Amino acid sequence: MTLSFRPAWRLPVIAALVLVAALGTTLGWRATAQKMAANPAACPAPRGIPTGFDYPQSAATVQGWVASGNVARTRTHGWNLWAALNTVQNGQPVWQSWCTETQAFASATTLAAANVHGGKPMRAFKLNNGLTTGADPINFPVSPVYAVPPPVMARYAGSKCLIPATPTSIASLANGPTLQNNGDVMVAGVIYNQPAYNWIRNNKLYQQSTLNGMIPPPNQTKQMAAMPAGSIALKPMMWPVKGSGFTALPVWDDLKNDNGVYSGFEIQSQWPRAVAVTPTPQATVAPASVQYLYGVTMNGKPLGPNTYASPRVAGVQQFYNYRPNLATMAQCDRAILDASAYYAYGRMFQQGDYLVLVAMHVMSKEQPAWTFQSVWWSDRPNAGPYAANRPNLPVTQAPGPWRNYLMTATYGIPATPGGAQWPVAYNPYIELAADHPIATNCMNCHHRAAWPAKSDEYQAAGGPGALDIYAQSNPIFNGLIGVDSLWSISDRAVAPGAVGAAKAKGTR
């Protein structure tokens, strides 16, 4: 997980979209998944975490794990939480019944959230309160550029979904009521369980005026009242998949060194393998190669298409997946899908195409500092340190493809006993694609969340490094109100009377 600099925990989602749970291993699971309606309304009946999954734990218990350095216990807890979130109730995983960020940050008179940062996509936001030079700056200066594809520009010209270019930025896509524009291949979102959603709405944390009233004097620091125990915030990230044939998905093999340069999934030298994702893995012959990445540039030159020879085949059933109904989808959500599909396979999204879940950040308020765990899909889910401590839960209790994901977790345990840094903990699909280095940590990132937010930076420059343990009384927070590790609050708070499409953001 990382410094999700803008929130890669910078995280309204697919809750509203409600991803279809991937087909599982039993006929009961398969039948349930097939019955799920397309584009169901989000949040009509949010459900809680079922019992039997090690959740919730008291703050004293979690802090005891941290104090004793019990990494294995924190990871086991994180796996249980991930499995519980994907337990099917009433035909859908629990988390897909929750409210989206767009709903949480809607003004009193509109269901749309404000375009706080001028419509820039998530990956365009940078965090400038850490080291910005040297081998591992918080943001690498050169990274891919995703211009809105020409056919997408043509389809949405003159609509509210297309944000025109300015002297300092290229044209972009507005957020939809359900989906967020991540500014690359991935389709982003952020969702909250009921306690978190209620706290934001009841305390009017969606209004800039509320946050402005909390700001301390310029030489002081202050934190807002903490979110209630039991709050959960998620950031799912989806990848488009063609309804027939094969779609390339780069897979991360846990490289240890980014060589001091951008290392997102577009960089084939850092992501040398890909799988060929297909709806019919048993009915087709594996392709000789797969390609992806269209219409993207880097440093002024074309980047891609990237070709991967002899890929392994992966069925969409190995992922949590969803098949959108384009006929009932909001226009701006459709625009995001069209751009995402074009970047991935050179054409716009069509009826019958899929979205598959490739990554998700999970934050739970089981201690004041939150717990952080982040998962990503892998074709080698049982190999390496990120597979460790996964509990052997019965399929009858926890069906579905949750076991096909790897996980990192950080609860506040230092990298070395008594040390001054947290361990490296990042999600390769989320953080690396947001221009961040490998050497980042989710807790380090989210603890920086504060208001007011600026268009391209948050706290003062020269702050703690991306792994440093620091207090929230650090001078970088002078004159700011801390927002309890939720970048979404500083990213999405609505100005009085604001109306418009939701804005996207950088990475958490």
Number of DSSP strands?
24
Mean pLDDT, to the nearest integer, reads 85
* Rg over C-alpha atoms, rounded to the nearest angstrom: 21 Å
Low-pLDDT parts are 1-41, 109-117, 497-508
CA distance, first residue to last residue: 8 Å
Secondary structure: helix percent = 10-25%
Structural class: alpha+beta
Shape: globular
Strand content: 15-25%
Helix count, DSSP H or I runs of 4 or more residues: 11
Query: How can the largest sheet be summarized?
Result: 9 strands, antiparallel
Entry keywords:
single chain; about 500 residues; alpha+beta; 11 helices; disordered C terminus
What would your notes on this structure say?
With 508 residues, the protein is α+β, with helices and mostly antiparallel strands. A hairpin with a 6-residue loop joins strand 20 and strand 21. It is built from 11 helices and 24 strands. Helices cover 18% and strands 18% of the residues. Strands 3, 7, 8, 9, 11, 19, 20, 21 and 22 form a 9-stranded antiparallel sheet that branches. Strands 4-15-16 form a 3-stranded antiparallel sheet, with no helix packed on it. It has helices spanning 14-17, 27-35, 59-68, 71-85, 101-104, 150-156, 194-202, 208-212, 331-345, 442-446, 487-492, and strands at 88-89, 92-93, 99-100, 144-146, 162-163, 172-173, 180-181, 187-188, 191-192, 222-223, 232-241, 247-251, 273-278, 289-292, 296-298, 301-302, 306-309, 312-315, 321-322, 354-364, 371-377, 405-410, 450-451, 481-482. The radius of gyration is 21 Å and the shape is globular. The termini are close together. The longest helix has 15 residues, at 71-85. Residues 1-41, 109-117 and 497-508 have low confidence and may be disordered.
